[in-house]
Each structure stands twice: as C-alpha cells, then as structure tokens.
Amino acid sequence: MPTSPFPSAIRSLAQDWDNDPFTKLDWVKDPNRAVAPGEAGGFVARADGCSCLGYVKPTNRSPDNHPRAANEKIVSDLARAVGICVPPVQLYRRDKNTEGHETRACVSMVMYPQFHEWERIVQLGDAAVALARSALARACGIIAFDAYVGNTDRANARNSLFGSDPASPIDDQFVFVDFANSLLHHNHWTTSLATKHVVVPNMFDAIKACAHGPTLSQTIQAIEELTDETIDGILARIPEDYMSSPQRELVREGLKVRRALVRPVLATQFNLN
Question: For 114-266, which CATH class?
C-alpha cells in the first residue's frame, strides 16, 4: 500500500476512524466556523472526544439514486488505498426527527487548522503561487483518481484546498474534498458500457497545468494494483439503506473494470513518463 497521505498529526486518529465505518460521536454545529454549503448542504461540527473538527454532509435530502454519503465513504477509503489525500470519512446517522433533512449522512475530518482556496492563494503573490503549484504537482495523482471514480466536481476550485498547519509546515499539502458526485451520480454506471466509460475529468486549469507525468503514472499503478479483496472490503462496510445491493454491485463491477482503463485514457493527454 502507498505511504499514508495524511499529515503526521492525524495519522493515529485517521486509523481510529478507519477501524469503524460509523462514528460513535455526537456532532454539533460549530457556530464559529461558518462555511457556505454546497447544493447538498452541510456544516462544520465538533464532537466531545475528538481533537479534530468534522464536516457533516449531506443535510439536504438525497434521492435514492444519488447515495451521496455512501459515495463519500467509498471514495475516501479508496483514496487512502492509493495514496491520495482525501479526508477520512465516517458514516453518521443524524437524528430522525430532523424534518426535511437527510439522516443518512457522513462526517469528513477537517485535517488542517487552516485551508486556502486557489483564488485566495493567487491573491497572496508570486511566491505563494509558486509554492502552491509545486504542491499541486506532487498531488496531481488526483487527476487519475478522479477519472477512476468518475468524479465530476473537480472543476470547482473550492474542492481542492491547500491545507496548512503552522506547527508542522512540512506536512502542508493539497487536500481534495467533495466526492458525492462520483460513482453512480447521474446514473453514469447503470450499464456495462457506461461502467467502462473512463474520461479525463474536468478540472480547474491549475491542476492540469501542474501535472507531473511520473506522479500521475505512480497513482495509476496504485489503482491498477487495487485488489478485488480491497474493493470488496470497502463496499462491504456500506449498509443497505445507504446504498442498495444493486447499486453496490454496479459500483463493484465499475471499480474492478475501470482499474485497467485509466492509463490508456490519461496517456492521450499527458506524458506519463
């Protein structure tokens, strides 16, 4: 398995989250951390007994053919297996009395005390942009990973954040979030033909401009080396109400077939050597 993509400060906690697919904590909205939610809703939360904040989502009701929380959990586990920096995710059943809101949620770990969106980095001047471009080159494996899981949300620069910890700047890196619109989103994987349809994802320009061939190739190799047992184990942790058995079988087929299809597709646009 590739080296852990997580900063050293949270590796132990990330392992704790991995040991149980469901959080046992009660997450409460943090009134001091307002973040504009996406279409699915969400909020920054804290929980007694956890040293990190979390982001709870979705809060708006999800249609059964768009299992947002399940997608987030599956993709987070896959990312860890191939060495991509996606926050650890646990499933979280919200209060059934929350009228009009989704109870099948998840919580995504807030890994860094500070995050910087690309637009903000550009405003900080040439030195900051150069640093960020270097970090993007190291993290460009996300291009291959997004192609593999069928993510359609990387064109939104808000979903690629530079995480910073003044206490440990050596661990600063790009963190990639929001994978609800992956896998079965828009019924992309509902036929065998669609399952095999791998494309280079839309992305904001800086990621593509910073792509580094050997790094991309390394991520592709990690995807190709995912075992059936790893994929089966990740999917086995998803309850029926979060993702139905027929949906899970489509995802299982897609993740296994698509392993071998990422390299030839990316080779049409990137020099992988």
Answer: mainly alpha
